[in-house]
Structures are given as C-alpha cells and as structure tokens.
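Hello forum,

I keep getting stuck at the same step: I have a sequence, I want structure tokens, and every attempt I make locally crashes halfway through. Rather than fight my setup again tonight, could one of you with a working pipeline run this one for me? It's a single chain of 378 residues.
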Amino acid sequence: MFSIRTLGKSLVTDVNKNRILSINFTGFNQAESIQSTFLKSEVLANFQIRERHNSIRDLRTDFNWKRERPLGPHLHKPPNKVGVRAAENYRHIIHYPEDGKYTIKKLDVTKLGGRHPVTGRKVLEGVGGGSKQKARWIDWFRVPADFPRDGTVLEERVIQVSYDPMRDAMITMTGWEDQLRWQVATDKMKEGDIIRTYTTIPKNPIRPVEGDSHPLGALPLGTIVCQVEKWPGEGAWFALKAEENAKILRKVGDRVVIKCWDRLEFSIPEEAQCIVGTNSIHPLKALPIGSPNRMRWIGMRPRSGLFKKKDGHMGRKIKKPPPTIQTTTHEEYMRGAGTDNSQGYMCRTIILDNKSEGTRGRIRIKKKMIIKDGEVNW
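Reply #2:
Ran it on my machine without issues. Output:
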C-alpha cells in the first residue's frame, strides 16, 4: 500500500516550482488517478510531515508558506541591496511628519519584529516583541542650517535631561530664542547649563569645556570628543551611542585624525564639528539585563543556542592596526550602494531546483560576457 508519509516526504522536496504529477493510489475501495495536478501551497500544506521536530521551516521557499528559516540581513535577496551602507532597518519604522518640519513631539513607531518592511519575510530571528515606544527626533546638526558661520557663538540653555526609550543614552532639550530641539546629552550635562557652539578655528588651540561644540581643528591633541561629523555640515556620524567617544590623535595638514572604539583611525577635515565629552547613559540601561523577561520587554527574542565558531574577532589574535580611513562626503560614501544584488549573468545559465544539484553533477562554468570600459571581452 502507498504510504501517505512517503508521499509527503517526496512532494515537499521542491516547493518553488510547479510540477506536473501522475500519482496512482492503490489499496482504496476505488483506484483514483491524479493527472495534471499542479503543486500549490494549500495542497502541500497537507503533506508537511517530517521525522524531526520543526524541520519543516528549513524547506519553505514560497512566500505562501507559514514558516521559514530567517536568512539574515546579508543573505536576504529580494529586494534588499548590496552592502551595509544601504541596509534596511528590520526593527522599526519611525513615522516622521509628512511636511518634513522638525518637531519636539513624540513620534509614532511601527515595530517590524525582524521582518523585511516590503516582503514581510523574517530576516532577524532574535528581534521581536517588546513594549510600546515613542520616538524623539534627535537633531544631529549642532550648527543649525540657518545659523551664520561668521564667528557668531550660539548659546543654548539645557531645559531638561530626560530618558529616551529608543536609545541607551540620555537626551536633553535645548533652546535658544524661540527654537527647541532634542540632542544627545553628555555624561556631565545638567539642567540649567549653558552650552555653546563655535564655528571658527583660532590660531592656538582653545581650552575645551564639556558640552561645547567646536571644529576639530580648534581642539588640542588628546581631547575626548563625541558626535563627530565625518564631513563638515553633514551632521554627526561617529560616536553617537551611549558611552561612546573618540580621541584626537594628531593633525595632518588640513585634516585631524581621531581614534574611535580604541581600534579605528579616521582622518576628517578640520572644519567638521564635534562635541567635547562622552555620551551619557541612563542608569537603568547601564545595568545588566539579568532576566529573560526583561529581554522580551526590550524586544529581544531567545537565542538559538547554536554553536558559533571562535574566529578571533574580538582580540583573540594580535593583529596590526588597520590604516587610517579618509572620510569623504556622504554622497561619495554612498556611491554604488543600493544597487540590485541579483543582476543576473550575460551568458547561458541553468536553474538548480533541488538543493543537492548544486554539489552533484555541477556543469563547468562558461565564459561570461564582461563589459569593461565600454568594451566586451568577446
């Protein structure tokens, strides 16, 4: 007699492609013949039988299936893009005002739970759940766009230092004239303080005061800074998170070299703004998590428990420091990012349906048509 379990194990091997079947059932009161039947998700759902527990999630390749193993942000093909510079945010979506005007009001947040915002496929397995949160719009431009850069000093008063559920660092509301904005607070900032923003580079280095903002070229060597711009006028880029900072190492021509995370060195134009000091951290955020329940509150799902190979990434091997990185404008930095990661091949290809076909009976690769400098290689 034909076994339904055997049938299910044979049908579920390929779910990505419609395939014509010709199956005869025997042993019933009347023999039935299934001719020209296409495999569909609702049909295959009845044959999802496996010997091992939860192994069906490794088989799904169709979006209509209910469960699939997360691919990870670097393997998620459609419609993600190449490179970390154009990576998607799989955790949440912040709904900014439609008119684009800055506001200090709380913004609505839609949680994605580790799924892709377009396809809904699970990408990050360790993300999901968590308490409801509201976002605050952080202004990363210490020098406002409409503020003159003729040497005028911008003085702002710290109105309050408060908690932000979307980050570990404390945030502060500052104001001048009739303008209010949210900024990331430094660790020694208090209510009522006056913070100043300078835009000029004097001949001799100045004596820094924590909380004040200066161009990198105006500060002496060894100064601890945070919220550093990678290019003048493009907003803070380095040392944005809680307890992060950078150290000014040396000056080379019209550039200043800083060291971030005690590991990488960046060469930045001396006109780039920075803030003196270290980013703050909320006291409760500085505590260890200490409970799996609290991990769920902050949106972290249980870990898989899979073995991870120790590859010597975090200091297990002594390696020479990498060379200094020359920063560029954001437009040049993002050049080439966001292109399609599956552009296809300009030659004859073959589609491998079964997973084992990639290692068994592999055909020899053909010569590809490569276009370089407007010329074709054949």
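The longest strand covers residues 154-162. If your local run keeps crashing, start a new thread with the error log.
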